[in-house]
From TrEMBL:
Gene3D superfamilies: 3.10.20.30, [2Fe-2S]-binding domain. Residues 1-79 form the 2Fe-2S ferredoxin-type domain. This is (2Fe-2S)-binding protein. Pfam families: Fer2, Fer2_2. Keywords: 2Fe-2S, Iron, Iron-sulfur, Metal-binding, Oxidoreductase. GO terms for molecular function: 2 iron, 2 sulfur cluster binding; metal ion binding; oxidoreductase activity. InterPro entries: 2Fe-2S-bd, 2Fe-2S-bd_dom_sf, 2Fe-2S_ferredoxin-like_sf, 2Fe-2S_ferredoxin-type, 2Fe2S_fd_BS, Beta-grasp_dom_sf, Diverse_Oxidoreductases. PROSITE patterns: 2FE2S_FER_1, 2FE2S_FER_2. It comes from the Bacteria.
Amino acid sequence: MTLRFTLNGRPAEAEPAAPDQPLLYLLREEPFALNGPRFGCGLAQCGACTVLIDGRAVRSCSYPAEAVEGQSVTTLEGLGTKESPHPLQAAFNAEGAGQCGYCSNGMIMQSADLLSQNRRPSESEIKEALARNLCRCGGHNRMVAAVARAAAAMAG
Ligand code: FES
Ligand code: FES
């Protein structure tokens, strides 16, 4: 079955390797070869694989690829570029919010979902939004500061 969906703002087509192939694999393999979403636990527990589907954060390791038919998928690559980073990407850099960086994709994508729903979240709302995203380096405090910085920048 050929899937047709939107990927980072462009029409995309793909043939899943199996009916239950996780979306994460489809995105990371050829022809897309997107390495923003990471494989962490593979069990919807850590958040490293998070992408946006129709604007909402989804754990792509546990989301069947075939379910994206007709939907809009955004990965970290579609949020911003090195030349023109999204305010969240700029804020994570500015705050030094990340050590090994393995969790960064999930933290940023989950935060993008949060800021699309709540333009000026409180510290506790940011912490709550990121509570299910694991960071083994213990970088949560800087990440919370980065999300607050991005929210302020986006509010102008
Ligand atoms: S790899 Fe998907 S939640 Fe951990
Ligand atoms: S910065 Fe290393 S896991 Fe979060």
